Structures are given as structure tokens and as C-alpha cells.
Amino acid sequence: MIRKLGLNIKLLCCIASVSRSGYYQWLKRADKPDKDYDDYLLIKELFEQGKGKYGFRTIQMKLISDKSIVMNHKKIIRIKNKYRLYTKIRRINPYRQIMKKTMAHRSFPNLLDRNFRQTVPYKVFCTDITYLPYNNRLAYLSVIKDIATGEAVAWNLAANLTLPIVLDTIKNLKNNQTLPLASLKGIVIHSDQGFHYTHPEYIRVIKRLGMIQSMSRKGNCIDNAPIESFFGHCKDDVEFRSCKTFIELKQLISEYMHYYNNKRYQWNLKKMTPVSYRNHLLIVCK
User: Fold this and answer.
1) pLDDT tens by residue, the chain, 286 residues
2) Nearest-CA neighbor of 203 among 189, 220, 218?
3) Which DSSP letter does residue 232 get?
């Protein structure tokens, strides 16, 4: 094209501060189709489906589960970088509500001791509460999670932070028909030393069920890292701020819990969902 216009290639390369060999190499590549473009469209579709929050691991698992396509993770990373598909990074939540305890409240030893590599389902649970802002209000989400499988085995959403939020969560755990358990006896339930978990009434309920309480050390949120991680992902995935009413928010959380347990593939669970991994472990443990 440049020669057809009667232009001097050497002069133009000099003006553009590029070598003639570099120009010809670019010209040669420019005539070739982009070999990554079809794969980019696949990755872009899943990336946008995840609202820009899917990393290479999730995209790789989604390609396998949704499209039956196996793609090397290094290729996914390269294509994401090439086309500037940058994943939104979850921010650390600096806000943590602390409530003072009375002398009647009790704490318990840290039986879990950061042993998060559990391999037997329904052996160790962890629990905590987080806040969800919506429509200039706050709702509070209490969740119990099985550390071995990552499954959210019980949850409760409340409009206030009073004691019933955790008592109702335990009630929901007892009434969960999907758990293949005759009783909750002997299960360790780990929490922080918050007001709710050291309350005499909560302690009585846990003891009545035969469960064993374990607590993090003061000021050590890493001691309860699995549930903290769950809340972080929940706040990334759920558009709770768009909710106008408490009922709308509760429906959104209910849908997310089903999605998280049954449809959200996780790299560290052998690329399975929590429920699939739970069933896998139950077979292995027999």
C-alpha cells in the first residue's frame, strides 16, 4: 500500500522510529487472522457472565462443566491478559462489629486450631455473622459452614443483631432435610468470641444438641478463615445493594445459597461443587 502511494518506506520507518525489518514483520503478522480470537470469545462470554469477577480457575472449571471444553490454565491467563479481561479483586472488609460480654458469658478453647484441612463431612462446622447493606439499611446474615466440604449447611437472615439470629440458624440446621444426619451429636462448631456465641442461652442450645463448642482467640479472625472467605465471596457475587426490601434481599440470599452449594465449582474441592464434593467424601469415607 505504501509503495503504491509512492512513499519511501525507509524514510517513513525513520520518521516512526522503527526498523525496516520490524515494519515487515508487523506487515506479515497483520495479514494473519488472530488464532486466539475464538477462544477469547468463549472466555469473554464466561467472564461477562461472572460480571468480571471470574478468575482463570473459575473460567477453566466453567469451560469444562458448561461447554465440555478443556483449556490449559496458562492459555486462559495469557488470553485474559492479551484482551485486558482483568478480574475484579475482592476488597478486605475493614469493618467488624464488636460487642462487649457480661460476666455471665463464657468462652471455649480453640479446638480447631486452624486445622482447616478436614476430610470428613459433618465433623467440624464454623459459623459467624456478617452485615449486608441495602436501601440505606442493614441486614445481618448468619451462616454455618461445613469446613470439610465448604457446604453452607444452615443460614438465617435477620433485620437486627439480637440473639435470635444465631438461635434460629441452629434451628435451621436441625431442620435441614438435605443433611444425612440422625443427630448433631459430636460435631464441633467453631466461632469467634462474639456476644452471641458466648451467651448462656446459645451455650445451652449447643450443649442440648450434643455439639462441641470451639472458639477463635480474641482478635484473630484468621482462626475462622473458612467462614470469612465464604462471606467475602458472597459479597462479591450477590448484588445485595440493589435490593429495595428485606423480602427481596432474603430471596436473593436464598438463591445464592442454592447456587453456592450446588452450582459453584471450586478449585480446591477437586473442581466440584460443595454438594458434589460432600457426596464424593461420603463415598470415600465408607
Assistant:
1) 445 444 577 777 888 788 888 877 777 666 666 788 889 999 999 999 988 989 999 999 999 999 899 999 999 999 999 889 999 876 655 544 445 555 567 789 899 988 888 889 999 999 999 999 999 999 999 999 999 999 999 999 999 999 999 999 999 999 998 888 888 999 999 999 988 999 999 999 999 999 999 999 887 778 888 999 999 999 999 999 999 999 999 999 999 999 999 999 999 899 999 999 999 988 876 6
2) 189
3) H
Dihedral of the alpha carbons of 228, 248, 176, 50, in degrees to the nearest 10: -50
Cβ(136)–Cβ(245) below 8 Å: no
- Residue 159 is given by DSSP the state S
* Alpha-carbon dihedral 243, 245, 250, 255, rounded to 10 degrees: -40
Region of residue 113 (phi > 0: left; psi between -120 and 50: alpha; otherwise: beta) = left
29 Cα distance to chain centroid: 41
Contact (CB, 8 A) for 245 and 157: no
Domain ranges of the chain: 1-32, 37-82, 124-284
205-231 b/e (C-beta count within 10 Å ≥ 16 → b): bbeebebbbbbbeeeeeebbebbbebb
Which are the contacts of 4, defined by CB distance < 8 A and separation ≥ 6? none
Record: fold of 124-284: Nucleotidyltransferase; domain 5 (3.30.420)
- The CB-side HSE value for 207 (13 A sphere, CA atoms) comes to 9
Compute the 3-state secondary structure of the chain and give helix, strand, coil in percent, each to the nearest 5: 45, 15, 45
Ranges of H-type helices in the chain: 9-16, 20-30, 37-49, 56-67, 73-82, 164-174, 200-208, 225-237, 246-262, 274-284
